[in-house]
Design the sequence.
């Protein structure tokens, strides 16, 4: 009965795939698309997230904080915290971790995480908060997360080599963990996030097979093409983020956006001829390849508008993206 | 809970009272199942948490009674234990009452064979759904199968709470929990039982729809076993390897198996074949819900409607 994020329904593999796609939206934060989170909301989330990471650091299981943050996001979207009292955020964070511990059947409990300095709530208070969270989440605690879809999407790739599958899965998992930090991804379905993470991973690890993967995922009837494109663009940006330090020294110029444009367009033509798609799909593929550039620009605009404090994020990103284009010997070059 | 107006008590479920109620805003009829949450020192008990969330997920199937929402009522002031209301869709009758109308109603007569076929198919669909999600029902019986007469729909109820809320031997009204649908391995004290226990119950329910009477109406665990043995023959090690080492196995009188066709004369050969596969002694040999869906008994059924 333990909750396994890769298999929340405890089911025999393919049996449950249609139901997973059917009900995944019940397990998403209910963010109205138009409503951007406020700076206050963002700071609450940031604070609660870092508390959750701290509280779960002893358990050595990255899925624990992931599940806790999933509860947190869904709770905050249903019942935004409006008070500035610091204990409210602490209580929310600790209750989310308690619930996740119970769902994962770890055998650990509140007393194991409350030893930390600064966390002293009595059981009754935590219990009330747990019930409040359960109510807001409608007791849907077997969260369907991107991890629930990874194996399904990988099976579409028809890999023959287990180590390759392992590598792809490991990288996609890494990207999904990282992606949870980015609030912009909350609007995407877990399956779309999984598909995008796999695309990013395969783009990095197996650039030659990438067009095939791309095609396999797009032709899956459960996947909404437009959402996939949008999510994948964000995901690429997030996936690159970790390579920041590597590229930091390599470049310093802030002009390469145009170079990038050109590179993306030309590479899109290669993609098309390689995969030998029909006219119709090739225009789609071209749109997919060009879209990142257009979309990123839009995002920059929104970002500056909505997250005034996050401008700092922009510079390093431009640097990283430029990296692979300049440094030919880099193994991660996008189109080799 | 102010959202709902309680209309009447409709039953005593295995785990507590069930009320028929109306959503004051929408007028929708619902079934409210009241459960006491046994809080322990660690807040909301993990078992309740896992079971209710599992129920939330399983109830997405068309063949499982839909859990509409979960409401928690803090009753600390009165009893010290918080209450949990599970709000289900309301379905007006159950299979027991439905069969009774064909037995004792103004115009008694057999259930139409096409209805038996359709209900059994829907039951197998629901059980297959539970099993594919790793969940055993453990207490399938006609009272737990809700029937929408107008639409000809059958749905499984009272699901999955087996672990969160300990299974009582007697229900709230001190009515003894029925043994009629209990699999022989459970009656013989096997601790490692699996999906076969539900399939045995499905077989008993299938026969009951065709006969309008329970197949094995025992009134104690011992009597229940004798009912089964008299009809199906006393099980042997050859038929069911390991049976004589089960915890509650004794030396029983030796009975030869009876002809099932005589016990369930309303069933034609395909139906009898399916029934005998559901009532295999060795749980490992018993047909699975998924395989049952492909049995020739359902060949004449229009499966596209499900």
Sequence:
């Amino acid at each position: 009965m333990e909750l396994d994020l890769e298999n929340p329904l405890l089911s025999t593999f393919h049996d449950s795939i249609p139901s997973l796609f059917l009900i995944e939206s019940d397990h998403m934060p209910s963010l109205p698309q138009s409503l951007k989170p406020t700076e206050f909301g963002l700071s609450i989330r940031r604070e609660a997230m870092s508390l959750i990471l701290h509280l779960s650091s002893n358990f050595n299981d990255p899925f624990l904080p992931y599940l806790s943050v999933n509860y947190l996001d869904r709770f905050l979207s249903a019942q935004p915290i409006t008070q500035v009292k610091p204990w409210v955020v602490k209580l929310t964070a600790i209750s989310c971790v308690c619930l996740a511990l119970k769902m994962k059947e770890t055998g650990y409990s509140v007393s194991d995480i409350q030893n930390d300095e600064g966390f002293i709530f009595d059981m009754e208070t935590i219990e009330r908060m747990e019930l409040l969270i359960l109510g807001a989440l409608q007791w849907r605690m077997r969260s369907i997360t991107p991890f629930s879809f990874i194996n399904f999407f990988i099976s579409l790739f028809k890999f023959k080599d287990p180590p390759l599958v392992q590598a792809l899965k490991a990288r996609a998992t890494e990207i999904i963990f990282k992606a949870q930090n980015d609030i912009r991804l909350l609007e995407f379905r877990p399956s779309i996030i999984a598909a995008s993470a796999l695309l990013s991973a395969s783009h990095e690890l197996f650039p030659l097979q990438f067009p095939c993967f791309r095609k396999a995922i797009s032709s899956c009837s459960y996947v909404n093409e437009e959402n996939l494109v949008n999510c994948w663009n964000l995901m690429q940006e997030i996936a690159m983020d970790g390579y920041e330090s590597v590229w930091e020294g390599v470049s310093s110029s802030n002009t390469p956006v145009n170079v990038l444009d050109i590179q993306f367009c030309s590479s899109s033509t290669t993609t098309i001829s390689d995969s030998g798609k029909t006219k119709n799909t090739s225009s789609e593929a071209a749109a997919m390849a060009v879209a990142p550039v257009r979309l990123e620009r839009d995002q920059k605009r929104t970002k500056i508008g909505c997250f005034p404090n996050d401008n700092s994020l922009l510079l390093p990103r431009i640097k990283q993206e430029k990296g692979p284009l300049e440094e030919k010997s880099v193994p991660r070059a996008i189109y080799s | 809970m102010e959202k709902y107006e309680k209309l009447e008590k409709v039953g005593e479920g295995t785990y507590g009272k069930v009320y028929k109620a109306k959503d004051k805003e929408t007028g929708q009829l619902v079934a409210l199942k009241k459960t006491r949450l046994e809080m322990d020192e660690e807040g909301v008990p993990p078992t309740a948490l896992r079971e209710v969330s599992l129920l939330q997920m399983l109830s997405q199937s068309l063949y499982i009674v839909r859990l509409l929402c979960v409401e928690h009522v803090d009753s600390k002031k009165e009893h010290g234990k918080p209450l949990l209301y599970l709000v289900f869709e309301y379905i007006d009758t159950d299979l027991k009452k439905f069969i009774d109308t064909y037995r004792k109603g103004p115009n008694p007569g057999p259930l139409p064979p096409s209805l038996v076929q359709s209900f059994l198919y829907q039951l197998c669909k629901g059980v297959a759904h539970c099993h594919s999600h790793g969940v055993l029902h453990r207490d399938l019986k006609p009272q737990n199968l809700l029937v929408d007469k107008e639409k000809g729909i059958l749905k499984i109820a009272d699901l999955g709470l087996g672990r969160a809320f300990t299974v009582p031997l007697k229900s709230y009204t001190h009515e003894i929990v029925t043994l009629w649908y209990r699999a022989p391995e459970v009656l013989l004290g096997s601790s490692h039982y699996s999906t076969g226990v539900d399939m045995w119950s499905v077989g008993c329910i299938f026969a009951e729809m065709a006969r309008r009477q329970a197949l094995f109406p025992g009134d104690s665990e011992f009597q229940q076993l004798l009912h089964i043995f008299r009809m199906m023959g006393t099980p042997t090690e050859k038929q069911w390897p390991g049976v004589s080492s089960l915890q509650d196995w004794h030396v029983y009188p030796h009975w030869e198996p009876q002809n099932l066709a005589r016990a369930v004369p309303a069933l034609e050969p395909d139906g009898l074949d399916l029934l005998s596969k559901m009532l295999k002694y060795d749980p490992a040999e018993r047909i699975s819900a998924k395989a049952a869906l492909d049995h020739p008994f359902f060949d004449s059924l229009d499966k596209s409607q499900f």
